[in-house]
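Entry for the shared binder. Reason: the reviewer on the internal report wants the predicted structure included alongside the sequence.
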Amino acid sequence: MSDGLNIAVEAERNRLRRLVWEHRAIVVVTLIVFLIVWEIAGRLTNPLFFAPPSAVATAFWDALFDPEARLLRALLETLSILVPGFVLACVVGVALGLLMGRSTFAYHLLDPYVTIFYNTPRVALIPILLLWMGVGDLLKIVIIFLAAVFPVSVNTMVGVRDVSAQFTEPARSMQASERQLLWQVVLPASFPFIAAGIKLALGRALTTVIVAEFFVSVSGLGGLLHAASTSYQMALMFAPVIILAAMGIAIDAAVTYLEQSFLRRYRS
């Protein structure tokens, strides 16, 4: 009996390994095909309007090791407003979502305003905020905060309200306090929703930080992108895009890893 079980387990592991390698092979092959098509299209197009990946890689390498460190300074400028705005949005968004998810009164009170701001384009708020707060990093941080806080709060609220009674009632029967119920039952059960909200907020934050650097003051990666576009340096324009994409992928992977680690610990 145990031999048959071990054979079945090993077969399942081999199947999972094969699926992983098949997925990686598909990703690699499609990426290679995409780069080949891009290279051919770039070489057949006017370099003022399009650049092949070989030229993009060369421009990115030159910018990365530029003696003036323009790319590094632009990255640090962008991170100095992206990190505080995004982190603050995640903290406030989770707290707001927990409040709306656990309190019916708070839900009915705040849901209309959350819905309005969630669906309002942040670009439309920039002229108003510019008049109120002036030009500066604080304005950019506020814009990023407004872009990221509502996806986190909405997903957290949905996750909290989705926690079924089969999780909460056993804890209540053991006289668990509201605080214990929140930290030991509701929050772990709704963590996948919170992680999904953070990932959605990340995309909005990365988009908004470039828009803010365009509209408020030409600085950071957005300023570098603007300078390259005005001088028709098509290959250099991709350098900020590559960095932003790498940042998004890295943060998304980190959130996914934390989510899986948290769920493994919670289930054990």
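Summary line for the report: Residues 53-267 form a domain with the MetI-like fold fold (CATH 1.10.3720.10).
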